UniProtKB/TrEMBL annotation:
Pfam families: Ribonuc_L-PSP
Family label: Belongs to the RutC family.
Name of the protein described by the UniProt record: Endoribonuclease L-PSP
Matching Gene3D superfamilies: RutC-like
SUPFAM superfamilies: YjgF-like
Superkingdom to which the source organism belongs: Bacteria
Length: 121
């Protein structure tokens, strides 16, 4: 049985999907973006906000960053990898999750970065 996880501390879905879905002990968090910062030109702030959004959703499910076992990072421009990685790395100082990072042609609402995660209680 699945349970829908929702918090007002993270952006509401912009389509027919949930912020996260909990199935038994596994939480699937939809890709998070920082719409309000996408056009600011401050990729560090944008990435920070994305990670904060993920943290709020994890907290709503009774979890934290240590519960993340897998993440997927989608970048508008792979040249931004080092900058995004710098911010992302602050959340995983030990035992980081498995991860892939890919450049995509376009992201929702023309943001620069989107991150989704899977966490296990």
């Amino acid at each position: 049985m699945k349970k829908i996880i929702y918090t007002e501390k993270a952006p509401a879905p912009i389509g027919p999907y949930s912020q996260a879905v909990l199935v038994e002990d596994t939480l699937y968090v939809s890709g998070q973006i920082a719409l309000e910062l996408a056009q600011s030109g401050d990729l560090k702030a944008e990435t920070q906000k994305v990670m904060e959004n993920i943290g709020h959703i994890l907290a709503e499910a009774g979890m934290n960053y240590e519960n993340i076992v897998k993440s997927s990072i989608f970048l508008k421009n792979m040249d931004d990898f080092a900058l995004v990685n710098e911010v992302y790395g602050q959340y995983f100082t030990s035992l980081p999750p498995a991860r892939e990072t890919v450049q995509v042609a376009r992201l929702p609402k023309d943001v620069n970065v989107e991150i989704s995660v899977i966490a296990v209680a």
